[in-house]
Amino acid sequence: MIPVLAMVAALSVSAATSHPAVDTAVVYLQIDNRGNSDTLVGARSPVAQSASLHRSMTSKMNGMSSTMMMPEASIMIPAHTVVLLQPGAYHIMLEQLKQPLAAGEHFRLQLHFVRAGWIDVPVIVKPF
Amino acid sequence: MRGRARLLLATLGAAAAAGVVLLIATFLPLVHDAMTSKHIPRVALIDDRSEAFSFDRLRGSGYALYFGYTHCPDVCPITLAKLERSQRALPADERKMPIVFVTVDPSRDTPAVLHRYLGLFGTNLIGITGSPSSLKSLYQTLGIWSVRIGRGPNYEMGHTSTVFFVDRWGYVHSIHDETDDSSTLAQAFMGVS
Lengths: 128, 193
Hints:
The complex is a heterodimer of chains A (128) and B (193). Chain A is built from one helix and ten strands; from the N terminus they run αββββββββββ. In chain A, a hairpin with a 3-residue loop joins β9 and β10. By secondary structure, chain A is mainly beta. By secondary structure, chain B is an alpha+beta fold. Chain B has a seven-stranded mixed β-sheet, with helices on one face. In chain B, strands 6-7 form a two-stranded antiparallel sheet. In chain B, a hairpin with a 5-residue loop joins β8 (163-166) and β9 (172-176). Chain B is globular and about 70 Å long. Chains A and B meet through β2, β4, β5 and β8 of A and α2, α3 and β7 of B. β5 of chain A pairs antiparallel with β7 (156-160) of chain B.
């Protein structure tokens, strides 16, 4: 008998918070992967026209700091690891918000993983 | 004779060492000054209330100066929120020192957009935009660079993320990374109070 359940990536997503600006918002969250490696390849939410994976990178030269924010096609989620999408690093960017997001509200985000498929994530809105 | 020669050598060595210390003490502040003593130029800009703005308006008050864009969801708002927390932690009189946010994305950051955006962070923030030539003059003086990343309406910007603290006479007093914590930034505010 094949242990089917053991073959499935046991992904869970928690601590999802969103901080809205004028017509954009960021989402930070935690991905716990207790199974095989997986890859996050996309996101969508009913509150925004688009949701995409981004990564902020900072560097320093001649005493001055710089920041770059790049779209990412995918984020690797290695087996048996916790991956944080957090300030100044990987994050989900929501653009062209369909409505203003108020602190304390919740909305739904869906994350698309290659192995695990679409996962629903409840997100709470907080001020910066 | 040998004793005198040793004494002479020791004296010369001590004098040389003192000279090196004096040179370092003299030139190190000059290197630091080259980084921080730049004067904010008097250029015609526009604030987030669509009124004409010159940094002369802030003469007599220190302020924090940061460059970014309102479409940025991550580093810019995190930095502004941290600056606002550091500003709020100051004694009442020093709390009046504003945070000035200059856009590096003037085509999207109209005064109205800047006003809505800065309202998310507090009341003592000033948003600045302006003509390409005025903004360029300000950017060049402070060594600010920016680059557009991506096409279409949802492009991003790469940009200098240093925070400048400017004294009441319009000179840059200190510079900080956007990753510095709010207590460090509060101390920097106190340095220009």
